[in-house]
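Troubleshooting log. The previous run stalled partway through. Resubmitting the same two chains, unchanged.
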Amino acid sequence: QKEVEQDPGPLSVPEGAIVSLNCTYSNSAFQYFMWYRQYSRKGPELLMYTYSSGNKEDGRFTAQVDKSSKYISLFIRDSQPSDSATYLCAVRSGNTGKLIFGQGTTLQVKP
Amino acid sequence: DARVTQTPRDKVTEMGQEVTMRCQPILGHNTVFWYRQTMMQGLELLAYFRNRAPLDDSGMPKDRFSAEMPDATLATLKIQPSEPRDSAVYFCASGIRTGEAFFGQGTRLTVV
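Second attempt completed without errors. Output:
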């Protein structure tokens, strides 16, 4: 079993839709949570960083963490064609600093 | 504009040759990660360092891969001898102990 599970998709939505991306993780030692966006032939770019359970909002993006169920989510409101990319969740151990990624979900937003 | 710098961006080499990839972490970051990305496996953690000391290299094939940090401004990943199955994009990332990690643009390696 992988330490972080993420549905690879692909996910296709119309412009303006609300997008929900999700990951589950297995180890409660993971205490820091991140979402990255990766465009084709580019390095992953940090979108959101959270520590505690609850919601964190940044513009059209909302990251949600539920530590009790080991479940993390990213919501994108009013999705745009420029949001078309691969989205990777990542979890980091508070003890060792180890940073592990999910498989990534490929998102396409159609005009 | 602080960023992680990786060289080379692209590398094509013949099977059996040595390959060295270099990474300059962001100044002040004390943690460096090496990842390999393929379509099948996604981003796999190969090794990571804190304060230049290796903390975990369990993701790395030990017989052919080696990772080092000769100084705080340089991390290297070597493959010797290279094999076609090593073809992938290799990423370096840097950060502080429990904070965000920032990625370079990657080295696209093709072994023929």
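Takeaways: Chain B touches chain A through 25 residues (CB under 8 Å). Chain B has a mean pLDDT of 94.
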